[in-house]
Amino acid sequence: MSAESDNKPLWKFICKTLLFALLPAVLFLSAYEAAYRNIPNSYSLKKAYLDTMADSVEVLVLGSSHSYYGINPEYLSLRTFNAANVSQTLDYDAMIYNTWFRGKPAPRYVVLTISYSTLWGRISLGKEHWRSRKYSIYMGFGSWRDWFSPDGYEFQLGDRTVLGYYLLGKDFVGCSDTGFGTVYKCGSGKDLYETGVSAAVRHSLMSAATADLCRDNIALIGDIIGDCAEHGKKTVFLITPTYITYREALPPVQVRRTHEVLDSLHAAHPDNTAILDFSTDPRFAAADFYDGDHLCTDGAAKLSVILNDTLPKIFD
Q1: From CA 277, how far away is CA 113, in angstroms rounded?
Q2: What pLDDT score was predicted for residue 161?
Q3: pLDDT tens digit sequence for 111-128
Q4: Euclidean distance between the first and final Cα of the chain, in Å?
Q5: pTM attached to this predicted model
Q6: Buried-state track 182-212, b at ≥16 Cβ within 10 A, e below 16
Q7: How far is it, in rounded angstroms, from Cα 111 to Cα 107?
Q8: Nearest-angstrom CA–CA distance, 106 and 226
């Protein structure tokens, strides 16, 4: 009998041992990951709402955390849904609009929040690129490969979120049923000077390297405006209030270019677009801010009431 034949039983034993040892671990980790990914969050909540209620939405809010934490639909008399999210960029604004609203009469108003970083930003290209997988997993945007890519697929073993949700019943959604981010409570905010300056540095994105991206983002806005115009809908460009430390730390050329683009888009579509710029609105004081560029919940209530009063008048 050959040595190779003698080793076959040993190899079979090793393979069976590894199989029986690894299979339970793989099954456990897979179940754990599935449990983690089924915890409700702002992305899954917004998809569920839009899947069932999109046709009844009268005011759609799109944008980044500035509108996610800045517009509370409860203070608007028209049925409003806040589809913004943290660091959400125009490509995902467009995906949301195209998936649930393109070619339809709803909503009456699309509030497209334009921050001073918006025209040069893209989640997938920045430090928060990991947020892209949230849209793929929970909202159905992107490729199924995102689930299993090294960047997109990660086991969450040891993550306290699973234990907190399933054992302690903690809420990890962080927003209201109508999409407003609720965690930026007034009185618990951060230093307005430090956060204003640091946010402005992060948002200083205008450069030769982002020129093509800016053109692409302007095209995305134009496409949304065009569909709105075709179906009798109005597009409102909203700039939310920001604290003076943030505004003063931004590159003036980037601020100026943002306003030039909005003015140009409005001039091309004067009947169905409007610009609401609250960035320097004196009605907002330090107490209305959570940090240098975000409103707290009371500040958001104030802005939402103003928007509710203003929205029906700007197209008259």
Answers
A1: 10
A2: 76
A3: 999 999 999 999 988 888
A4: 96
A5: 0.89
A6: eebebeebeebeebbbbbbeebbbbeeebee
A7: 10
A8: 14
